[in-house]
Here is the input.
Amino acid sequence: MLSALNTAVHISPTERADRSSVISQSRNPVIDRTRQMIEKMPKLPGIAADAKPEDIQKHRENLLACLDKVDKTGDWCYQQDDASIRPIAVGLQAIFEQALLTSLASGEVAKADVVFITANPVTPLCHAAALSTPSLLSRSVANHAGSYDTVISRINTVPALLNHPDVNVCALYAHKRENASDQAIYDDVCRSHPDSNKFLSLCTELPLPDNFSGANYFVVSKDNTVNMFCLRITQANKETDNCSIFTHDGQNRLADLYENYLHILEGKYSNDTSLAKFIGLFRQNYS
Here is the structure.
């Protein structure tokens, strides 16, 4: 049973007002904890461990500025080269995942649904001893310490979410990895997961537009309200010049994703009830 979803049927705006499965605009405890972690962490995702103190402080300020914009306006968009974008956006994602795990442990968060929608299998679940193949990393990410660090920083958080008893994970990817070894590592993760009801992995064989690539976190607080945190950015093997992070004020983007991509998947895999339940998270929660 999904944590924030009971059925996959459409819910009208009036009905949504009374449902706990609908995104709330109340305080998101994971956002608050993420801020605390940014302020206190000696080693921040998105910057090399041996970086100069002044560079670490600048990165800390950039992360806080990004988070504050997301928290206050519900939306943060950034257009710049990949090496400028990725350390902030994916660095913040890595901290958010750590904060989510901490909030689950403390009881502030009761449960969560995480939906990855990417061109290839989730990068942190494809890693071996060295993350060096072009299947996993673009030249920009491989050669930029901060960007590379974002990949390394999520090697622990993503498996921890995947194996957490109160987290459901859906990983939809358009195509397999070009490198067979990278794909085999991911396939082994899928085969070894003990509960197919809590982890859905699907190769959709449906090309994914770059603007739909990313991660979506539906977080259920202890009072049963639901908050979302969504990131839109290409994977580490493809450079980009834009990204966005949004919360409740970006619900129109859920509608765009559903109507122009997930709805097609629903038709293609109409008998997959697990997929229908995860997709229902998007359909229920956009305005």
